[in-house]
Amino acid sequence: MISRRRLLQSFCALPSLCAWPAVGQTRAGLDIEQLKSGYKQRLKKILATGTLPYIDIESSCNPGRVDIRDIAKDLDRLNIGLMALSSDLGRNQFDKRIRYDDFPQRLMAEYADRFIPVGNGGQPPFLTEAADEFLEAQEAAARQKAILMFGEYELRHYPSPRQVKRGDTDRDVEVIIDGPTGQRLFSMSEKTGLAFQIHYEIEDRFLPPLEKMLAQYPKARVIWCHVAQVRFSERASQYSAAYVDGLIRRFPNLYFDTAFGDASSIYPVSGQRHSRIWSDNGDIKPEWRDLIAAHPGRFLSALDLGQDRLHRIAEYDQKHRHFLSLLPESIRHEVGYRNAWKLLFNEEFA
Question: How far apart are CA 160 and CA 157, in angstroms?
Fold first, then answer.
């Protein structure tokens, strides 16, 4: 385990890092080899207990409200390997013209062996009212080696079930994926070599623009969140395991995370199941199991925890482990942590 003192000594070897900057600024100098050492030690320690560790590639929080200590304790208690926990900036930060929050560095200062430093989440109003400024700040953080990947960008997002129940429509948003903001986002990934995540609802009309962008930016490293999460089946007649297989074969830098509802999860607006992966008996449908088995390197573990459900981490962990348990053992390790490791560090986990 990397101690806070040791990590701060490493940071302060670079003069620019000895003083914490104000919120909104970035700093350089993540010690990648030291981070990898701490991560690897933690993953192997969990493996030695006979438990499968996994890397949660997609969760987020309100940086002003999250209790990092509590989350770290939960990771230890549940034997979760690592968490990519990004900060979702809100309207208050937007009004203060904050375009990058140094939450990743605060995580590294206290729990560098548990968390992956991730750029801020791309939610409205940042992608809808100040996209250029926001993306420039995220790219600057990447250039300064402050993060290992970008956060989740909401290009087409329906309100979540919880938001529907609250009557909250703030995240009913559409950002044209092949428009100026999408072009900037894909280009940013190509230039920096860092992966980014997209929340992009599955509908027939959205598929051609996505394919266009994947072809136009072949070096962009894209994680399409929530594989097979379809809110309205009548709007997604083209989407299937066979369609995803075709995408994977055509686009080598496209990945999918496995954060989706369980077999009983219903989207309240449509009254339909969230995830098309599950059969009626609660097992994985054969075509989706075959897809993952055919391309085990392209799927990533994820919990998709947000600030309003961080307290439900044990429930989400149990559901994700159930999904992993339905995969062949060797593939569990690929999806659980090996794929994320390769995506982050361009090397096999060993």
Answer: 8
